[in-house]
Amino acid sequence: MKILIASDSFKGSASSLEVADSISAGMKSLRPDLEVLRLPVADGGEGTSEVLVEALGAKRVSVNVHDPLGREIRADYTLRGNLAVIDMAAASGLVLLSTDELDPYKASTYGTGEMILDAVSKGATEIYIGLGGSATNDGGIGMAQALGVRALTEAGTNIGPGAAGLAELHSLDLSGLDSRLKKLKFYAVCDVTNPLSGPDGAAYVYARQKGAKADQLADLDRILQRYGQILEQSSGREVVDLSGAGAAGGMGAALFAFLGAEAKNGINTVLDLLSFDEHAEGADLLITGEGKMDNSSLSGKTAIGIARRAKKLGIPLIAVVGSCELNLDSVYTEGIDLVLPIVNGPMSLEKALENVGPLLFESGKRIIRILELCNRRAR
């Protein structure tokens, strides 16, 4: 029996590979004869670059950049030949800031631009940029400044960082944009479809998780709306209403306007880069997982993305999850055959996070018992 485990990470508790290892160990403790393949995956957001390293035979590149608040840090991205995969979260992510430091008026995407320049200097001509987990709401202007764009106030001086600086934007000068960038292919990898501004835009939908207060959302949206007008006028591209323009605090719009990036669905792009269908060929069972299955999962997170592939391939799929807040009927219609929560009794979130490894191990054993029950019934 061939089983393929292709799980996302359980954020804050286990990496994609650790999840797969724990489930596999639990299964093999009862059935050591099983052929269990592990394929760590991600949905195009945080962690995407890391899971691609081993699968692509790529290398990790470490570079000095600036974090969202302008402090020097080391950030890694993946490079294989002329292909680079960058997680913007590595330089501009929520994970780099404490809760007290979160502030969209201050946070900048400048460090992501520095990562792009480093990849270009190392010969990358095809660059995928994962847009998940950002701490920013600056419309990607910090990234653009790192790439040579001048963002100017009415007095002709450079604007400051973050949404506070963006509020002072009067004009954009693209003449200094690094000339090498025009010859390259850029892909904005994300799983959201939000426009830049408006009720469904970057500020109203995502700024709260980046430290914005409820009474600041209208102002942040106004800043992005005005920025969008200047962006389109300066670049000659209509981008503000494109699907994904509001991803990562407006980074999507900046990538479309300044770099002519093509939007790519996160999970499908990752699965294609990993040659998922080839790995799944001949499998009797697929197992996927994510820490929390909720409404956002239906927009194309890892578990649902794999479910849609499994459905096309005609392979049964079990989803191992930390928690599920969805009506399971909506999940099962997507191609998942069984949702298996790892929590096996009453426990606090803290205890579940501390014991995620053993819980995943036990989930692997439960999957074997389910399979054996079905086999006995079939006989």
Defining key terms:
379 residues, alpha/beta, five-stranded parallel beta sheet
How many independent structural domains? Answer: 2
| SS content category | alpha/beta
Considering the protein shown, what is the CATH homologous superfamily of the largest domain? Glycerate kinase, domain 2
Low-pLDDT parts are none
Total strands: 13
Q: Report the sheet with the most strands, covering strand number, pairing sense and barrel closure.
A: 6 strands, mixed
> What fraction of residues sit in β-strands?
15-25%
CATH architecture of the largest domain: Alpha-Beta Complex
Mean pLDDT across all residues, rounded? 92
What is the CATH topology classification name of the largest domain?
A: Glycerate kinase, domain 2
By oligomeric state, this entry counts as: single chain
Helix content: 25-40%
* C-alpha geometry: elongated
Order of helices and strands: EHEHEEEHHEHEHEEHHHEHHEHEHEHH
Whole-Å distance between the termini?
17 Å
CATH class group of the largest domain: Alpha Beta
Count of separate DSSP helical elements:
15
Write down the Rg: 22 Å
In the sheet with the most strands, the strands line up as 3-4-5-6-9-10
